[in-house]
Amino acid sequence: MPENGQRPSCPLLGVSKAGQKTGTDALAAKLDCGRIMQVAFASAPSNIGVFDCEGRVLLANPALQSYFGTDFEEIYGKVVGDISHHADFSSLQASIQETAAKARPTALEIPLEDADGKAEVHIINLVPALSSSGETMYVIGYGRNIANIERLKAAVAEAEDQLHAAVRVLPDIFWVKNTEGRYLLCNEEFDRFNRIARNSALGGKASDLSEGEIYEIHRKTDEQALTSTEPVRFQLEIPQDENNETRFYEVQKIAIRDSAGEVSGLLGLARNITNQRKLENELRTREREYRLLAEHLPDCLIRYDASAKPVYMNAAVRHTLKERLGLDPVALMEDRQKLHANKAVFADLRNVVSEVLEYGKPQQTEIILKSPNGDEIVFELRLFPEFDDNGQTTSVVGVGRDITETKIAERQLKLNEQELRRLAYTDHLTGLANRTTFTTTLTEQLESTIAKGKKIALLTLDIDRLKTINDTLGHTAGDELLQVMAWRLEEVAASAAWIGRLGGDEFALILSDLDTPECAEALAERIIQEASMPMVLGDNTINVSISIGITIGPDDSSCPSALFRHSDIALYAAKALGRGRYCRYDEDMSRTINKRFEMEAMINEGLRSDQFLAHFQPKIDLGTLELHGAEALCRWTHPEKGMIPPAEFITIAEETGQIIEIGRRILKQSCEVAVECNRSRTDPFVIAVNVSARQLLYGGFLGTLGRCLEETGCKASWLELEITESLLLIDDAAIIETLNSISQLGITVSLDDFGTGYSSLSYLQKFPISGLKIDQSFIRELEKGGKQGVLVRTILTMAQSLGLKTVAEGIETAEIAAWLTELGCDEGQGYFWHRPMPAESLFELIAGFLPQPSLLSAGSDGSA
To answer: How confident is the model at residue 31 (pLDDT cuts 50, 70, 90)?
Structure first.
């Protein structure tokens, strides 16, 4: 801006300085011209600005000021690129400078955003104002927003694309002709219908495609459409095609007129309505069928006209009125029937029908009718309005059903509701409160006891080995046991505690308002003593025990769910200590349980990381000292904890079911090793694999076994499965069937740890057992003499008499090996010969096997 603060002169407006005048006519004419230009400049809708050669604002019309969002005083003299605005004008500044320098007009498009962030496109024309010497004095800028124009062009192009796309995909036959009858546009359906190449009809006439009657119909209807302002509609029947099917088309034609109303062409549409015709015929058939169905419907069907008068009744309604109520259906429809006892009922029904007619909404009602003999007949009636094309209610359809028996049942149900409510909170087997009542009672009594400053004891009881009783004596005996136990609990504790059955073999007692926890322990002792008394179940007299977990609130927790969890933990601890006792909760128990959960999580991680591998302890033929086979043993090498003994994780894996996956992996590895061991042998090298009860009962074992054999190529004769005696206690037909199927495959089944469980000769007869494995606890005590030697001798003699193969495990000395050989034991395994080893070591051992025992490798911790 000049130092005097005045705006510079602007030749663009035809004045030199504001307020100056000359006395000549020419100057007056210039001033008039200047005023005109000022008005045009000020009122122009486009953005107009004058800039010096560096891009400073010299002049801005109101439109440009409004765009900048400020007045002229704020932007005068500022460089365009420095003006604070939501858009970037740096490129405009550079274009102004370039226009001034080159003294040539410039046009540019700039994408901008308005104050609301909406995208705009501006065209800006820059024109240099030159002096008489040809130098640029200033630059005039003229800008306008062309976003709407661009959007309109895009919309038009999009509309055209959409129109052409719609024509292409239109399912109807579509065509456009000019006034001479020549085709200008035809879609693919048109070409498909006429069986011509794509667009081959363009430029041709209808006579090129059809002839005879169909051509005449088209010619006449074309003429009608071209001379009419309304569409011409007609239906066309096409003779039978190669499928012997007559087709029907609905055709519409309309003249195309320009803006002046002159006809410029003809548009035609044809739709295949063959299926519609078929549907209409089918609907007429269905209507007849539905009428027949309505007449013979077992439910009552009745229609009322607009005056709520019955005009139709099906056979069910007529039968009910005539046979059960003694009324004449025809007289009732003609309003000639005397209703007597049911007069008020029919009057109320007519009022309900009238409401449906008036409001056009369905209603449901029940009506109770009196039969001549005084019996009540209850009908549930649903009324639905019927409408005409204008939406006016014209009639009402009623569908009724005799619900007399239902109503009688409902009344009986109400009589039983109180009993049902009682049963909902009572255990049906024992008559004690159930788990739902327990949760509510524990919460209420805990809050009440804490408020009084007293203590509360929660005892969780579990009948030990109830499953064994169910499996051996049957579930009926098990249920009787639960009932007897519930009665004994009530005898001992009913006056002192709330008693409930939580489910299965689990009971709970709640003792409230205690001063000390000792009385809870005293009650637990009395319950254990009472529970241990013999009880008669059918023809059997049995003894059972109870394990009890005790927790004290609020000492252990003031939260009901936490107390319940603590009592369960204490119960678990009581069972772990040998059952038939009680344990009071302490924090160490939680830590033990947490360790168990940690072990469970570690097992899962071990399975994910393939940390479980099979090691193999060789079996020696005691007669020849040859290597005849090996037993697969699960080994777990943890990346941080190292080798984890099986005793620490097998039991947990059994309880959680993880043993199923562990067993599957050990079985597959054993099959792979068996294949390798037998690769160059003629006599089979047998790998023995331990199988748990959990695997056989719940793991789909036969399928797993079959897949392992198939995937590895292992022969059945190379595999032996070892099961424990406890599995044979389960009186389950599935176990027998599974073991028989395994035996039929040619796989040997042996009884592991024989003599430590519930040994019975009947098992050897009932199950397909081919061998006995004498537990190492017997073998290690042989050197001490005494009864162990007699037991081992007896087992071997019995097995030989039954033709069973015998294996002794845990052999650690030459003397024991020699003694077992003398007694006729078939095979042995133990540290006297070899420790369990990885598969690679077993392969090396087989390749260079020497029969002499490895005395240097003998240890003291057995075969496993």
So the answer is: low
